Amino acid sequence: MINSLRTLLGIRTKRQPLPITSAPRPGASIVKGDYRIKTNQPCDGELWDWLLLMGWRVSSVRNDRRGYQEMPADTITRLKAASIESRSAVLDALSAKASRQAA
C-alpha cells in the first residue's frame, strides 16, 4: 500500500548509477539500462574501457530481480573481434536481436 502511495505522489527516488569498477571476471553480469551481458570470458582492458564509455557497468547486486533483456552469449567474443570503429554497430545489432527474442 505504501508502495502505491509513493507512486501516486511521485515520491520515487532515481537510482544512483553503478560505480566504475575494474574489468569483470568471467561469469559476472554487466548491465546498461534494460540489457544484461553475462561475461563468459575475460574482458580485456581496452574493450572494458570502451564499454565503460558506452555506459555499461558491472552489476553489484547478487540476486538481481530486475527484468533485463539478455544479450547473446557470444556478445563479448563478437565485440573483441570487431574493430573499434564498428563496435557500436555490432552492439546495436546484438541489442536489436535481444529485443526481438524478448518480444
Description of the structure:
The protein is of the alpha+beta class and 103 residues long. The protein has one domain (21-102). The protein is built from four helices and four strands; from the N terminus they run H-E-E-H-E-E-H-H. Strands 3-1-2-4 form a four-stranded mixed sheet, covered by helices on one side.
List the helices and strands and how they pair.
Blueprint: H1 2-9, E1 29-32, E2 35-38, H2 45-53, E3 57-58, E4 69-70, H3 75-81, H4 87-102
Parallel strand pairs: 2-4
Antiparallel strand pairs: 1-2, 1-3
Major sheet: 4 strands, mixed
Tell me the number of strands.
4
Low-confidence stretches: none
What sort of overall outline do the alpha carbons produce when their principal axes are compared? Answer: globular
Number of helices: 4
> How does the helix and strand content classify structurally?
alpha+beta
Q: Please tell me the total number of domains.
A: 1
Structural Rg: 16 Å
Physical arrangement of strands within the biggest beta sheet = 3-1-2-4
Task: Indicate the proportion of strand residues.
Answer: 5-15%
Oligomer type:
single chain
Please trace the helix and strand order, writing H or E for each element. Answer: HEEHEEHH
Helix content: 25-40%
Q: Look at the structure and give the mean pLDDT.
A: 87
Cα(first) to Cα(last) distance is 31 Å
Characteristics:
single chain; 103 residues; alpha+beta; 4-stranded mixed sheet; 4 strands
Would you summarize the structure shown here?
This protein has 103 residues and is of the alpha+beta class. It has helices at residues 2-9, 45-53, 75-81, 87-102, and strands at 29-32, 35-38, 57-58, 69-70. Strands 3-1-2-4 form a 4-stranded mixed β-sheet, covered by helices on one side.
